[in-house]
Hints:
The chain is an alpha/beta fold and 389 residues long. The chain contains 15 helices and 13 strands.
Amino acid sequence: MRIGIDARYLSHGLMGGVHTYLRLLVPALIERAGAASIFLYADTKAPFEIDPATLPENVTLRLLPYRNPLSAVWLDMTLQRAMAQDNLDVAHFPANFGFAPRGVRSVITLHDAINILPLHEIIIGHPKNARTIGLMSYLHLLSSLSVRRADAIVTVSEASRREIIRVGRLPEDRVVAIKYGPAPHFRRLHRNASAGRCHDLGIGRPFFLADALKNPAVIARAWRRLPEAVRSSYQMLFFSRVEQPPAPVQEMVRDGYAQVLIRPGNEDLVALYNQARGFVFPSLYEGLGLPPLEAMKCGAPVIASNRGSVPEVVGDAAIVLDAQDDATLAQAIQRLIEDEGFHAAMQARGFARVEEFSWPKPADRVLDVYRSVLAQAAIGRQADTRVSL
């Protein structure tokens, strides 16, 4: 089997869910693919994140030229030409869209249904500047076309699978849910090690951890409900991918109830999860929701929303509540502080839950998808032969 993978997210210096997925998937596929030939297609925008010298002989890295932002658009349209030269059997596009060469089976990972929603629904709730609308329109067009042409669509949760089938009006057997877990570096640390690292980051009080971009308004409202003794002993610690986090976060910082770390490194984030009294994740929408699993693997009990795929992912290993219910969120935070037995029980549930998503199991399932689309192609060729006879 000759497998091509659009790996450009590993040469763009990006962060986020798609990057994490690809960074975990590629090494696992290389490990599990046996004698299959794997071709990775990246570009020269930034250094490729996997050292080419470590790639085995059956893996070929193709670095395509990147000169300016228009190069990304050009490669979106022409990557299939580069792939055609390698005589692939199957091409995998892990970042929501892509087009395989003629005669090559195509697999798309569509992480959620957002890009294929009606365009007016995608734009609602986002800044209405020309750049944002243009980018959303572009991604909507390419994702919608890719989904129609793909032989199989992989997504990351059953909730996303149902939504993709509904929105895309797709046959159920074309969409496969393959959940995945955190990277191996998310792990339980010795408490002194995580405490020392947090001290080096300037964290002086016990804390609950949260993503600054995931519905922080409900966290701010919940924090105001807590007794003053709790608010003076604990703080909310937000990590943020943007320099200017949302207003509710900035207000909590101003009032002395929160601290923000901008883009903490991987090992810093591991230490934060280890040291946190709990992880608060009241997200309004998730295709998968990987951060709760990262927190569980590091020993932080999780409080999570009941939206999207989050309940499916966390199961009974988290406190699940309505994403806008600040009163219940405040109660959950206070219970994790005051009830040591409950805290220990939620921690143990988290450790057990995250093992269900461990790598390389997801890579084995992706390889099964490749084999399935190739088997379908073989059946189709046999049928065509019988008809021609």
